[in-house]
Design a protein that fits this description.
Largest sheet: 10 strands, mixed
CATH superfamily of the largest domain: Spore Coat Polysaccharide Biosynthesis Protein SpsA, Chain A
Number of domains: 3
CATH architecture of the largest domain: Alpha-Beta Complex
Distance between the termini: 29 Å
Radius of gyration: 27 Å
Structural class: alpha/beta
């Protein structure tokens, strides 16, 4: 876990987490039982409270960690299970008739204090949220997702919250969090900086400055958020460490924003421009269904480009008749070469590759684009794939084994499993999204992986080395025929697969990996004879590749 959470957490989340953690420390001191965080993100509050066990409840699950998938209206814990229960920026997402039950449930499982953070239900806060939503529409072309529930349900009125606490016989103190003017400008600046592809470090610098200078408990009555600290015996206000800071004015935030954005091209990248690139080679039996599934997509606009790798069947005719733009390569460039060509000819800041033997769900393109924009540290995002003709999971992210063989995580499992986003070794080239600037930063795909296999694995490894993450995003789904060009478990398939594996090994194996690789490779071959179709193909691959591997290694070390 990063020891400096202010460097990676957006300022609004940082301010409320810092305030909550200070309050919890004031209640429990250096001792005390676990803390329950209802509606939080696993791992965030625990960064601020590393000495305490933080249990997170939310629904649905989208993260890893000490996590319970449940509703805040029906917590699966006994009465008084936690000395402190916190919930911040959750109440406004709950319909008003259910809010008393929600607060009562927090109180039921607490043996001492509850800390309830809510946007202040006042006209100036409502106006501030409308400003942020309006700017979000300007960038994305659609309303801000979590503010819509604020508008739908209405911000909790302070008087109504106090009535509920009084009815529960709870004594409370109200702390103010996030000066309103700075909050508005900070939210607008964050959304804008996120829209500049090369502004990752500027965005971190901007949030870092605000997080360093912010008062956790605001002295300004015009704040964005109120934090109610309540208990049944009235122990009084909590001793919170005071930061001797003047607070941040809107002018200071604006100055920091301009500093963070300097030397950038100051262009708006939202709504995100998306290009879908499809590489075909003799796919007349499935390309129509693939294109039809893309036509059913919703939620984001995108263009489609088909690169045909010299098909000798009716693939090109079918694509031409569909009206989708396509390019016929003069020869088979392989998957990597054709995809590089498609990326150069497309215009999207986000490039999504879809195999011609894959049918996407209506929300798949939108979900991949959303993941790329929301997950700033992500360079490549892949989806969840089911098999073409059965409801069986085929891919939930990829695993690279010690001998550099690859495997699809979750293969053969129930498709309802693996429903949480996760960081993985790689994602399949059948369906993934890559940010253009990330792709260009590593020089595109390596077309030496000809005709196929390992090109996406190699791309993911190289992009990860630049500091980006490879993310599995289960809400982007599709049905995949798999290996429709080379067949499954054939001599040709294994020869191509292992030939590409050897190239991948030559590029990425480290000296300290060699002993473990040799042991894993021996184990892989044990129990098989030379008549095994895969071992036979592997032996052919070694004969064709061993003398090339040193030069590949040298070239990789020299040119990346």
């Amino acid at each position: 876990m990063n020891s400096h959470p202010r460097n990676i957490i957006q300022f609004d989340r940082y301010q409320r987490l810092a305030a909550l953690s200070s309050i919890v420390k004031g209640i429990l001191g250096s001792t005390g039982g676990p803390v329950l965080d209802v509606g939080g993100y696993p791992g965030e509050l625990s960064e601020f409270l590393p000495e305490k066990k933080v249990v997170v409840v939310d629904k649905p699950a989208r993260c890893q960690g000490i996590y319970v998938n449940a509703s805040g209206l029906s917590l699966p814990f006994r009465d008084g299970s936690f000395p402190v229960v916190v919930s911040c920026d959750v109440l406004e997402h709950i319909p008003p008739p259910l809010r008393p039950d929600f607060i009562a449930e927090l109180s039921r499982v607490s043996s001492s204090h509850i800390c309830l953070g809510v946007p202040r239900g006042a006209d100036d806060v409502r106006k501030a949220e409308r400003i942020v939503d309006l700017f979000h529409k300007l960038l994305f072309g659609q309303p801000h997702p979590w503010l819509q529930e604020h508008f739908q349900h209405g911000l909790p009125d302070p008087d109504s919250i106090r009535r509920i606490l009084d009815e529960l016989n709870l004594y409370y103190t109200v702390y103010r969090n996030a000066e309103l003017g700075a909050w508005v400008f900070g939210m607008v600046a964050n959304r804008y900086l996120e829209s500049i592809d090369d502004a990752h470090t500027r965005l971190i610098r901007f949030n870092d400055w605000i997080n360093v200078c912010s008062e956790y408990i605001s002295r300004d009555t015009r704040c964005y958020r109120d934090i109610y600290v309540a208990d049944p015996v009235g122990t009084g206000g909590i001793e919170i460490p005071v930061r001797d800071l003047p607070g941040i004015s809107m002018d200071e935030v604006a100055s920091s924003f301009l500093c963070a954005a300097e030397s950038s091209d100051l262009r708006l990248a939202f709504p995100p421009s998306v290009s879908v690139v499809i590489v075909t080679y003799n796919h007349e039996n499935c390309i129509s269904e693939c294109l039809e599934s893309l036509k059913e997509s919703r939620g984001v606009s995108f263009d489609v480009l088909v690169i045909d790798n010299g098909s000798n069947d009716r693939t090109a005719d079918i694509v031409f008749e569909s009206g989708v733009p396509f390019v016929r390569a003069g020869k088979n460039l392989g998957f990597a070469g054709a995809l590089n060509l498609g990326c150069r000819m497309s215009t999207g800041d986000i490039i999504i590759t879809v195999n011609p033997d894959l049918c996407v769900e209506p929300d798949t393109v939108y979900e991949l684009a959303r993941a790329c924009t929301e997950q700033r540290e992500a360079g490549v995002v892949g989806g969840k794939l089911r098999s073409w003709d059965s409801d069986v999971l085929q891919h939930a992210g990829g695993i690279i084994h010690t001998n550099f063989c690859t495997a699809h995580r979750g293969r053969g499992a129930d498709p309802n499993e693996y429903d949480s986003a996760d960081e993985v070794d790689y994602v399949t080239g059948a369906l993934f999204a890559v940010k253009r600037y990330c792709l260009e930063s590593v020089g595109g795909l390596d077309d030496g992986f000809w005709p196929a296999y390992y090109e996406e694995t190699d791309l993911c490894v190289r992009i990860r080395k630049t500091g980006k993450r490879i993310v599995y995003w289960p809400w982007a789904t599709g049905r995949h025929m798999e290996n429709s060009s080379l067949g499954v478990a054939t001599e040709s398939f294994y020869w191509t697969y292992h030939g590409s594996r050897l190239r991948f090994i030559a590029k990425h194996i480290r000296l300290r990996d060699i002993p473990a690789f040799i042991r894993a490779e021996r184990k892989f071959r044990n129990g098989r004879d030379n008549q095994d179709v895969e071992i036979s193909a592997l032996s052919r691959s070694w004969r064709g590749w061993w003398w090339k591997m040193p030069m590949i290694r040298i070239k990789t070390r020299l040119f990346g």
